[in-house]
């Protein structure tokens, strides 16, 4: 896979509102999938699909802790992308007033 294809895969994964919400929910640290299921108002199967897409794009990683699976953002680079988008959106709204 080329660098461009990997970049597009990351943007596509982050481009879905539910997946973006998942990443924002995990921004402050790892959380159990049970907590994600409480916060994200979709079925377990739907949530699992979104988590799989985020993992395949390299955005999230997971680990088993006892009987539970905990998800985390895979690196600071992903947080930097989210921060950059948030800053852009703020400036976009401030400039459009």
TrEMBL record:
SMART domains reported for this sequence: HTH_ARSR (SM00418)
PANTHER family the UniProt entry points to: TRANSCRIPTIONAL REGULATOR, ARSR FAMILY (PTHR33154), TRANSCRIPTIONAL REPRESSOR SDPR (PTHR33154:SF33)
UniProt keyword annotations, A-Z: DNA-binding, Transcription, Transcription regulation
Protein name, UniProt field: Transcriptional regulator, ArsR family
Annotated GO MF terms: DNA binding; DNA-binding transcription factor activity
Statement: the UniProt record of this protein carries the keyword DNA-binding: yes
Pfam families linked: HTH_5 (PF01022)
Start and end residues of each HTH arsR-type domain: 1-93
Organism superkingdom: Bacteria
